[in-house]
Protein 1
Amino acid sequence: MGVGKKLIGWLDERTGLVALIKGGLDEDVPGGARVRYVFGSVLTYLFLQQVVLGILLATYYSPSATDAWASTAFIQDRVAGGWFLRGLHHHGSSVMVVVVVLHLLQVVLAGAYRKPREVNWWTGLFMGGLVLAFALTGYLLPWDQKGYWATQVATGIMGTVPLGEPMQHTLQGGAQYGNLTITRFYALHVFVLPVTLTVLLGAHLYLFRRHGVTPPASLSDEELARKTQPFWPNQLFIDVAAMAVTGAVLVWMTYRTHGAELFAPADPASNFVARPEWYFLFLFQLLKYFEGPLSIIATVIIPGGVATFLFALPFIDRSESRAAKKRGPVLAGVGLIMVGVVVLTALAVVADANNEHYQEGLVAAHEDAERTRELAAEGVPPEGGTAVWQNDPQYAAIAVFKETCATCHEIDGRGAEEAPSLTHYNDRAWLRGAVREPRSLTYFGGTKGHEEMEAYSVEDLPDEQLDAVIEFLLELREQGKDEPDPSAYDAKLAKQGAALWEDELDCSGCHEIEKGADGVGTPVFWGRGTRAWIARVIRNSSQADLYGENAEMPAFEGKLSDEEIAALADYVYAQGLAD
Amino acid sequence: MSDEAKGQDTQTPSEGDDTRRAFLKVGVGALGAGLAAVVVAPALRYSLWPLAEGVEVTSGGDEFVVVGKRDQFGAVPVKVDIFADRVDAWNRTKNVKIGSAWVVELDGQLHAFSSVCPHLGCAVDYEAESDKFVCPCHDSAFGLDGAHEAGPSPRPLDQLEFEEQQDGKLLAIRFERFKQGIEDKVKV
Ligand code: FES
């Protein structure tokens, strides 16, 4: 006897292991092994794989509003194999839903829900429900835009049903989404649901073994007995082959999509085009058809009716025989439900495909996703989620602006008025205003020592002429750029403006327009308003072609880094682009 | 179980044994229930704590928040983000986005609408082609005055309170959330 055998013998004597395994595998399959019996095994395999993958993900994932997105992005984009394991877990849930439906259809076709297997049918339905609950709770955990908004709709539905509000608030841990929503969904997803499913799965398998497979109704008892094959290895081989096919599909899906999507971090202020995962689209579509108080038809009555129908199936089905022919109405009922689901899903997909607004939103969402994940590579600030944008130079500029510039300048109402407003700085309306009312607080009214410039009234400078002058100023600005953009101004108007400047206006008394000229404590207009010009003003505005001796603004050269000045200049420049 | 033990078990029990066993059975049940209650009772309060009187899990943003200059708003709706210091359970974050609002001026009258769809909470968008607010989820549509025009939403868009600060130069909004899916506008 080999050592291995000896060891097994030793263990068996003390545990009865061999008998246990034998008991597990020794099972007659009346009528022989069949492909149609594989679904339960495939689901068991998928569930076990999900458990393993889930544990692996949990070793990097951090369930909190500040960390969830950052840690998911870390798994997805940094950790070796992270995208692959996360992708398998994500697509695994989709595949599970598909196989659950196939399993259910097979059971219905075979009439396996009938006496004496009612309880097994019910445990199966419960487990199907749990699979959906897994999907719903798992969807939120990355705390990205998609999960956040789609789950809002789901919990929102919960809040609208009778007595739903306390349920909703218990589930999401308060009236709003936040840290407690994640910890609760996480606890459900990784403890409550798996434990419940495991218990039900145990019961399901026990009952299955107690009653055996439901062989084809067309075979007589004799035939069944004659064709009987053992579970091991005949059926098990088919089962494992089916698992292998499923696994191959899963790997293929995961590679093809580079794992699961991860959108930008959840942002309660954005307008994200929320869609649930594909297998919930039919419910989503259903919601569109019922207005106001009738919503309950879509949220409770129809889904509740379908669930009740399925649960009551063993009692509804009163036919003598299991043969499919004899159970027309029951099969038609289930078939109708399936057709409804498929049609509604198709309608939702088609509606979105034809919805430009949605398509644009999706493109924007993907851009945001890409950008935020790039920024996340530098590390997400501890405020988490959307704070990742702070890594963006423009957001850094906003922070510097608030700290350094807002004591005098304002943008969009935030900041002081002791210097010109930078809201829409240098766009056409801003420039027009500067000519019409330079003394107002928006322009130089709040700036010390800038009393010289006189307003041009409509009588002296009619609107059409002013518009021409503005185009001329924009042309002068463009000339100062390395690559002037001729579409930034109207060339014809600009020409008129140049003529007015030469012949009629008093502006040239103080403002030069020549490249390289010096002002008289007034900015030269050649190149005024470009990014580079703004950066120079920030560095030191007392240069002769800027504000010269009239310069009030402190020089930030040396106080701010070159990058900060460049980012600020970009930010201020961008204010004028909105028009 | 050894054979001896089995032997004892099969002896016909006396009446005293019966009562004693009845007592033991009740005892097992009572002790078991007691042990479970040690956890279950506090667990209920613990889990339902967010619903308890006076508990506010998330707070912040109840004040008026400046969203921009009054004169930047006009007949074309503008979306503004609302920033506030927010406490979310154990975290306090300064100056984070807590929501957004659409601001529009109609016939000289300013309106500020929460961007949260009264149906189920998706973010409502402005669609320039139709000059309407539309929800990307279940296709509810609203006029610029917030009136419900199509789709499943049970009520018009939710008006937010606003203030014109600094002699009417700045606009400040108080961002609030309202219950979804019902006809009345009720604060959550
Ligand atoms: S959430 Fe806006 S229509 Fe449903």
Note: DSSP finds 22 helices and four strands in chain A.
Protein 2
Amino acid sequence: MSQKITSYPGHEITPEDLKASKYLEIIQKVEPKYSWAAGVAISRFLNELKEGRLIGRKCDQCERILVPPRMYCERCYRPTDSWVYVKDTGTVNTYSISHVGTDARRLKSPLLVAVVEIDEASPGMGILHTLSEVEPSRVTIGMKVQAVWKPAEERQGAITDIRYFKPFEGV
Amino acid sequence: MRRRVAIIGAGMTLFRRRMLETGKELSFEAAKMALDAAGLTLKDIESVVEGSAPDAFDGVHMKGEYLIDGSGGIGKPYQRVYVGGGTGVFTPVAGWWNVASGLYDTCLCVAEEKMSPLHPHPQYAFWSIFDQILERPLGTTLLWIFSLEMRRYMHKYGIKEEEIAEVAVKNKGNAVDHPCAQLGAKITVDDVMRSEPICSPVKRLDVSPPSDGAAAVILASEKVAKKLTDQPVWLDGVGWTLDSTHWTNRDLAYPEYVEKAAKMAYKMAGIKNPRKEIDIAEPYDPFDYKELHHLEGLQLAGKGEAPKLAIEGVSQRDGDMPVCPSGGLLGVGNPIAAAGMMKVCECFWQLRGEAGKRQVKKDAHTAVAQAWGDLMQVGTVTVMRS
Ligand SMILES: [Zn+2]
């Protein structure tokens, strides 16, 4: 605001105004429903999740293994070349303890979320997921984790076929 | 041949959690103030650019078209631009194309946002920016990516939450002197540290509020600007770049897309040593750590070194390089697109010496405004000179 301007426009509606119904409100609910095609690359990825496996795509030019997979390499701007299975283990790149849900309302119990860099994919290739079976205070960046899968009969070809990642127990 | 472009007027409305005015009315108020400041009427304006962020906030599709009459765009070459949170600074960038290209001599740039319509909370709109197949089923909220990025930034450079909190203290304090501010307050690092954890490490006072509001500037070609004012502020550099939406495949500790945008703008403006040549910075600060992240991307601090600026006083209003003297999004408020434009307005007023109680102590000639957004992927930058 410039000091040359002494009054500035706008009328605030305070929470008290809302409570007292001082102003009219026009309320509508908009409920569109969508059915998305998962695409060429992600359809395969989802089908592999159903089998309890993670898969990426390899670009022979930059030699990256891309997870999530894409049919084209966005850096080389050419089609990717082959499907490559990768491990269902990885490393915590970063994590957060979320106390809020999608609509900003408080969650009953906090949720651990993380970017997990997937083993055997190229460095930095992470996916978003949740962590469990670990105290929030014990999570660290660089921690090794492994996928905990739903039982085969409950898997439906969705990212939630992995229930969460937990601390890696192998060697 | 590219023409020189000047800002010759600026205006803005109050920023508040919920405003009575519609988006059209807010756009009108900000645009009218900018026109009056430039000594022009709508008849003098040849083209109009409107910036507004997700349609999902309003529940109005074709928001650009909806806003057109409030923005003064009827019957003129009118454009709505949108790059998420980067929109506010992208709006004058698009305006710059209009004038620098030689197509028009005057361009009105308006940025508007009403976040309040969406219930129960505007955050809900952000759920739908995530990948619908691989990410939304996990129950995403935008706060996740901020907290994940903040943690990665802290980890990489060994930065403490207390150091980051200094930015919230500075910006909310600066906003006390902004007549349009929503959340100006004198707070302490302790207040930030003790505020409610939302998405750890992000706490309540690390975050800017949702807001309604609008802001506008008038751009003019050199010839027209010199006729209308003795104090044009030159828009000497613009830059913008985007990364992909594969944000989990990205270095979360450093905003490379901001670096690229900044280098584009600096090159255009002939700036070789940004830290020496930039007098005032208005980087995008929806969260306190984002100011630091962006200062590094803008080449105004080394990687991991931005926290020192507030602590050592450099970025305070009376410092050597004031950062967010407006009060930023943390203090003035964050009506997404309007918030970025507010930063451009602040640079304009500061460079003209009109910022009153907020006027920086140093003799300032060059300022940079920057915004950021979409799925952690866009940097938009403008360099201004008096
Ligand atoms: Zn490639």
Note: Chain B has two domains: 5-120+211-235, 131-209+239-385.
